[in-house]
């Protein structure tokens, strides 16, 4: 069984807070310290018992930590790694929960001193609501957690982080960082971009004093549920995985154009064929 003397979580929101709850509930850490930009969030995390200590700045928070978890928006990772790197003890493990890897992993690796191990991670778990008040020790049970080691990743550190996520109930998958970004641009980043676009599109329409969006039913709500996710987080993800996401948006536009063309030409057969294909694939997901 793994056990850490001190764990520091930078960014105590839904994911970081849920991991903190796992560490506490399973007795995997003697001390859990929270750090981040929002004192209000840290005070709430302390009040809720998610963390046991609140760091006085990130440099102070990571001192003597065995494990440091980057759970802030991915756009902050480089700056945070640069700030805390010199203050990480030899033998410390740095990991993260960001949904972009690729070039970001290589940038963070380059900022860390010798003797500090970096194990990039991405738990595939979440809710439409975010924030530490939504944190749960069961959030990761049955979920996938992708770890994206590189040639520089220490094997023992990788095994330790893998054991942590397994203790949280996650199914761990190892993947190349660049392959990760291409896959998740399609199955995660594109759907979020499409959901945001859908909400903004419908919100533009009005009929007299009635806003179309107020008439939305279950279908619209189901499709756009993820548009309630953190705008800051998704801004960073879109920018950091830009080339892959642009490729997927263009492919999605081709698919939409095929539907538009079939409608314009009153080609019911083609529409039904496309819909049947998609319907069968979706039902297969469970």
Mean pLDDT metric: 94
Structural class, please? alpha/beta
Which word captures the global form?
elongated
Structure summary, number of beta strands: 11
Quickly name the level 1 CATH class of the largest domain.
Alpha Beta
Secondary-structure element order, as H and E? Answer: EHEHEHEHEHEEEHEHEEHHHH
How many distinct helices? 11
CATH superfamily of the largest domain: NAD(P)-binding Rossmann-like Domain
* Structural Rg: 21 Å
Could you say how many structural domains there are in total? 2
CATH topology assignment of the largest domain? Rossmann fold
Distance between the termini: 33 Å
Largest sheet: 6 strands, parallel
Oligomer: single chain
Helicity range: 40-55%
Please list the strands of the largest sheet in the order they lie side by side.
3-2-1-4-5-6
């Amino acid at each position: 069984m793994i056990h850490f003397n001190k764990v520091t979580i930078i960014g105590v929101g839904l994911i970081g807070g849920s991991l903190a709850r796992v560490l506490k509930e399973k007795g995997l850490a003697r001390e859990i310290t929270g750090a981040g930009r929002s004192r209000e969030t840290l005070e709430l995390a302390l009040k809720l018992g998610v963390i046991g200590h609140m760091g006085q700045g990130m440099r102070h928070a990571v001192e003597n930590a065995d494990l440091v978890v980057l759970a802030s928006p991915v756009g902050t990772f480089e700056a945070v790694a640069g700030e805390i790197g010199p203050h990480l003890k030899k033998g410390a493990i740095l990991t993260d929960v960001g949904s972009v890897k690729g070039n970001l992993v290589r940038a963070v690796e380059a900022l860390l001193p010798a003797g500090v191990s970096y194990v990039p991670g991405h738990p595939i778990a979440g809710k439409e609501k975010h924030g530490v008040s939504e944190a749960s020790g069961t959030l990761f049970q049955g979920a996938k957690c992708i770890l994206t080691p590189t040639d520089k990743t220490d094997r023992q550190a990788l095994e330790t982080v893998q054991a942590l996520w397994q203790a949280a109930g996650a199914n761990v998958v190892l993947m190349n960082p660049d392959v990760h970004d291409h896959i998740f641009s399609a199955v995660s980043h594109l759907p979020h971009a499409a959901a945001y676009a859908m909400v903004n599109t419908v919100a533009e329409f009005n009929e007299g004093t009635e806003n179309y969006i107020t008439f939305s039913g279950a279908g619209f709500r189901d499709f756009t549920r993820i548009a309630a996710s953190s705008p800051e987080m998704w801004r960073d993800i879109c920018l950091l995985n830009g080339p892959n996401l642009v490729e997927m948006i263009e492919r999605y536009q081709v698919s939409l154009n095929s539907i538009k063309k079939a409608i314009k030409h009153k080609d019911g057969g083609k529409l039904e064929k496309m819909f049947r294909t998609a319907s069968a694939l979706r039902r297969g997901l469970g």
